[in-house]
Amino acid sequence: MITMYSTTWCGYCHRLTSQLDREGIPYTVVDIEKNEDAAFIVEQVNGGNQTVPTLVYADGSAHTNPSVAQVKAKLASLN
């Protein structure tokens, strides 16, 4: 499972969600502007910055603004 940390106004987030949907890759979206804990997680992964989209995978690893190809490769490595 993937958790995508996002905001409602992030164009990169909208693009990635469309790509994941098209590929049939399931994910959960968490809005960092509505969830302080989520914002803290994103800051930890990104050197203090609230950079989105940030994806966190089941193994605890993360990608910041990945391509759909990077997401697919990561998911393949987890199986």
How would you describe what is shown here?
The protein has a single domain, classed as Glutaredoxin. 43% of the residues lie in helices and 20% in strands. The longest helix is centred in the first third of the chain and has 13 residues. The chain contains three helices and four strands; from the N terminus they run βαβαββα. It has a four-stranded mixed β-sheet with strand order 2-1-3-4, with helices on both faces. With 79 residues, it is of the alpha+beta class. One of its GO terms (molecular function) is electron transfer activity. Pfam families: Glutaredoxin. This is Mycoredoxin.
Largest sheet, in brief, is:
4 strands, mixed
Mean pLDDT: 97
Distance between the termini: 11 Å
Q: What is the C-level CATH assignment?
A: Alpha Beta
CATH architecture: 3-Layer(aba) Sandwich
- The CATH H-level homologous superfamily: Glutaredoxin
Rg, nearest Å: 12 Å
Any chance you could write out the topology, listing elements then pairs?
Blueprint: E1 2-6, H1 11-23, E2 28-31, H2 36-45, E3 54-57, E4 62-64, H3 68-78
Parallel strand pairs: 1-2
Antiparallel strand pairs: 1-3, 3-4
